[in-house]
């Protein structure tokens, strides 16, 4: 797998290799590529636990690969409503702005309808996808593939400065904290009190 070595030119490869490291229960995964590292989970227990785990990974990366710069940092939440009851009650669970073709009057005839918005934020930006996914479709291969339609709210908050910044683990973790707060703020705007009563949050 090509990895950038400090002070050397990047190796050009026709095929980009990704290494996947999964926990035994398949609920956590680290994906390592030539220019990125990602931590994914379907057992999310809050940003404090998540960022602590990612800090362990970034420190290991700093000790071994020794990257020199950071180009982009992102924090992504993927939320999904999947039960027929929740889809039938979507009007009382999420903001009207985000319902679209998931409206009960026409939803049965909609195969797929996913909208996207990109917004500026203090940290950089936020990209949001929301709408209906067809059966056997997922926004991540960590998500279970269902045999029915589902509704997703995919929130990706990121910082992407005009120039690359020095790779410093503590600085990256601080950015992740801010981005987590930004993504969660959008999530709370998007949902209703009924959603909180049903699912918490």
TrEMBL record:
Protein name: TIGR04255 family protein
């Amino acid at each position: 797998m090509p990895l950038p070595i400090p002070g050397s030119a990047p190796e050009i490869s026709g095929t980009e290799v990704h290494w996947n490291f999964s926990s035994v229960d398949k609920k956590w995964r680290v994906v390592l590529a030539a220019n990125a590292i990602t931590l994914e989970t379907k057992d999310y227990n809050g940003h404090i636990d998540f960022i602590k785990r990612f800090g362990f990974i970034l420190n290991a990366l700093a000790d071994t690969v020794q990257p020199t710069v950071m180009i982009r940092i992102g924090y992504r939440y993927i939320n999904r409503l999947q039960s027929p009851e929740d889809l039938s009650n979507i009007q009382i669970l999420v903001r009207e702005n985000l319902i679209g073709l998931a409206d009960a009057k026409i939803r049965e005839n909609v195969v797929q309808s996913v909208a996207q918005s990109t917004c500026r934020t203090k940290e950089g930006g936020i990209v949001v996808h929301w709408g209906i996914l067809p059966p056997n479709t997922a926004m991540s291969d960590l998500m279970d593939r269902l045999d029915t339609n589902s509704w997703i709210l995919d929130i990706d908050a990121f910082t992407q400065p005009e120039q690359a910044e020095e790779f410093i683990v503590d600085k990256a973790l601080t950015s992740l904290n801010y981005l987590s707060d930004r993504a969660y703020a959008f999530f709370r705007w998007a949902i209703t009190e009924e959603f909180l009563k049903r699912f918490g949050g």
